[in-house]
Amino acid sequence: MAQGELPEIFGSSWSPKAKLQFTQPLLADAAKREVLLFVAQQHDARIGIVSDVWDHVMDSANKQFEGPSGAQNFCTHFITALSNALTAQVESKMVNEKDAEVIPRRNLDTFIERRNLHFLIDMKLMLRRLAHYMSVTVEHRLEWQRNMTRTRMMDEALKEIFTDGIETPDGSKFGGKGFRSTWQEAVVAVATALDTDRDADASAKPGSGYGGDLVAPMIRDVGLSLAMGDTPLGVMAGKSR
Predict the structure, then answer these.
(1) How many domains, in total, are found in the chain?
(2) 105 and 54 together in one domain
(3) pLDDT, tens digit, 9 for 90 and up, residues 200-227
């Protein structure tokens, strides 16, 4: 980025490519409620326009989203309509001020456009999170529970070692500086959306026997290591970081 240029807003043109299969129909009123609650938390000044655009796009005959196609088509139309409404808002109220400098080296038109892009990205991600929530199966929840239970059991065992110490072969005691648990259990759900390639050999590497997704190292990432089907050594290495 050259001096004086505005930073790129990553994700501004993003839209989901894959359709998610809902495990049950999503009621339109319930979806609107979740959307407005999110807007109230993050962008409270936009509640009115979001509600109006939702009602405008939503067909009065549609009381629920039956499947992924209907939901994704609605979300696409909703985001497009919301973007148009945000633009029209400025055009109707401050069209003569579009070139006015609101902050140094930034006119009103550019300033509002970038603010709207950030807002629309938030709305796209919120709708996608809602779709992911509706696509969660009972099997997913059971898998999360299993991995969360394993993580908690390992936490308790290591906490005992760090607190009470463990005897070493030379007769001394090994302990630790302390122990911190940062709700790693919640991380196990991340792997649900990933291809873990559980059939790959333990010695396989990306491009050489392993065709699944990769995850970057995180601090104390034992939950993700468990969910990705890592080896015991890899899981313990995740715990020690």
Answers:
(1) 2
(2) yes
(3) 887 888 888 888 888 876 666 677 777 7
Look at residue 18 and tell me if it is in a domain: no
Of 175, 173, 170, nearest to 158 (Cα)? 175
| Last residue of one domain, picked from the residues 82, 107, 135 | 135
Structure tokens at 60: 């009065």
Query: What whole-number distance in Å separates Cα of residue 220 and Cα of residue 117?
Result: 34
**Structure-derived torsion over alpha carbons of residues 140, 146, 148, 153, reported in degrees to the nearest 10:** 180
pTM, whole model, 2 decimals?
Answer: 0.76
CA distances to 10, 80, 103, 119, 165 from 13, rounded to whole Å, are: 8, 12, 25, 13, 53
**Strand-pair category, 205-206 with 209-210:** parallel
pLDDT in tens, 146-201: 888 887 887 787 777 777 777 888 888 777 655 555 556 667 777 777 888 878 88
Q: Supply the range of the domain harboring residue 234.
A: 138-240
